[in-house]
Amino acid sequence: MEKTTLVWLQRELRLSHLPALQDAIAQSDKVALVYFHDPQRTLGQANSVWLAHSLLRLQASLRHKGAELLLYSGDFAQQFALALQEIEPQQVFYSVQVGQPFTEMQNLALQMCKKRQVALQPFYSEFWFTPGEVVNKQGNPYVVFTPFYKAVVDKLPALQPLDERVVTRDEDWLKLHWPQLPAERFELPLSLREIQNRPWAQKLLQYWQPGEDAAWQQLQRFITQNLSDYDHDRDFPLLDATSRLSAYLHFGEISAQAIYFELIAYAEENPQLNAQPWLRQLLWREFARLMLWFFPNTETEPFQQKFADMRWQDNAESLSAWQSGQTGIPIIDAGMRELWETGYMHNRVRMLVASLLTKDLNVNWRHGQAWFANTLLDADPANNAMGWQWVAGCGVDAAPYYRLFNPLRQSEKFDAQGDYIRKWVPELRTLSSKAIHAPWLYPQECVLKGINLGKHYPYPVVDLKRSRAQHLLRVDKLKRGG
Ligand code: FAD
């Protein structure tokens, strides 16, 4: 009897370093490579734009090899059942993912496969080490990053590289050819086609090129051009100094483990290079994924329980000013407008906008998380939840509650000439590099430059000194159980 395997792609949209696909091809006569698109379970609008392009590119790469990606669109449970019926696999392979909507779909798949007596095999290749392998002396997951990082670094020499090639003979790609299936299985789902055609989506894609090939090119560019200065330059938002690989990583167009082996190979050839600072960031990603694996409710609830009683103000006007980049605080507005224009925001600025929203404006971090989830191309359940909880002070290894970023000091430090602000807040571009960080403190210069505060650019939505004091009072009260 012919052996058929269904390989279910959740967000590992690549053809290299993918053990689930590799094992399926090695073990089976026929392999169906399937993506299920459930419009009720997508992550966010910007994510969907990337997803649409990534699926198209993957489809094109497979067609080039005489193979196909099969697309099922609609309610996940119904479509999964339909795929089992149409493909008749004896086994389903998938790479385990954390966060919603993945865990819910994984549970549904488990139930359906069990009912139909189809074997379901998880692969843990999207983790560096299988969850539970890196634990502390008590056998518990690390909840503080630095000891986690040290433990992982100790274990890294034992890490085995994933095979790059998923097929050993080119003709094996033909196992992924399904001419008998209805034409709609080969077409991008309607909801993704629609989103892709929106002007907003077209605008985002001017800045990015999704897909596996582009991911590798981006990695090479970063490693050879920016890695040596990463530690110093990474905090300056105007510089193109970080890898900008986050969306590629989110969609699994490149494997984080494969990046690690590329990195050490390059570091060995260039011994003067310090690759640790960037490796550390990659491991923050791993830490976030493990936190969601061990504490899945932290996607929506504070890790530190006492923050569940926090009284948020949730002022709709403040939230809207923040979302639209109209807070009157230039570095914040620059970041929020960069996000809207490009689907990306620099990490330092992400921390600043999150701190302003949660600590100065006293808006629940979940609103910020939701906005990011909808507008970031790299929106990721694990990194986004961890980032917001870290800044809000309620997460694992969080910034202390009393630490508010002062956006003006940060702006002067990391955008000293104000050119990042000038780029994204052009109405302030004529201001001096002193006044541009806080125009309301320089009314004469504003008048001189024809900038009418309150008309051309808003006054700040909040008095930063007062909001800081109020935040500290609120959190003190919370800590005392009030
Ligand atoms: P690089 O500096 O080149 O880092 C390399 C990779 O390491 C990144 O691509 C990313 O995968 C990982 N990484 C870097 N910093 C972090 C971090 N602090 N936490 C976890 N992983 C990290 N990142 C996302 O990928 N998706 C999100 O939805 C997301 N939301 C965030 C929300 C907030 C409030 C904050 C403060 C941070 C958030 N981050 C998120 C983390 C970080 O800002 C981005 O990963 C980074 O800016 C992406 O740029 P890069 O690829 O050039 O990063």
From TrEMBL:
Domain of life, per lineage: Bacteria
Cofactor: FAD; (6R)-5,10-methylene-5,6,7,8-tetrahydrofolate
UniProt name for this protein: Deoxyribodipyrimidine photo-lyase
UniProt site (Electron transfer via tryptophanyl radical): 312, 365, 388
Entry's family note: Belongs to the DNA photolyase class-1 family.
Molecular function terms, GO-annotated: deoxyribodipyrimidine photo-lyase activity; DNA binding; FAD binding
Role summary: Involved in repair of UV radiation-induced DNA damage. Catalyzes the light-dependent monomerization (300-600 nm) of cyclobutyl pyrimidine dimers (in cis-syn configuration), which are formed between adjacent bases on the same DNA strand upon exposure to ultraviolet radiation.
Annotated keywords: Chromophore, FAD, Flavoprotein, Lyase
EC numbers for this chain: 4.1.99.3
Catalytic activity: cyclobutadipyrimidine (in DNA) = 2 pyrimidine residues (in DNA)
Top EC class, one word: lyase
Keyword check for Ribosomal protein: no
Photolyase/cryptochrome alpha/beta domain boundaries: 3-128
UniProt-annotated binding residues for FAD: 230, 242-246, 278, 378-380
Cofactor note: Binds 1 FAD per subunit.
GO BP, one annotated term: photoreactive repair
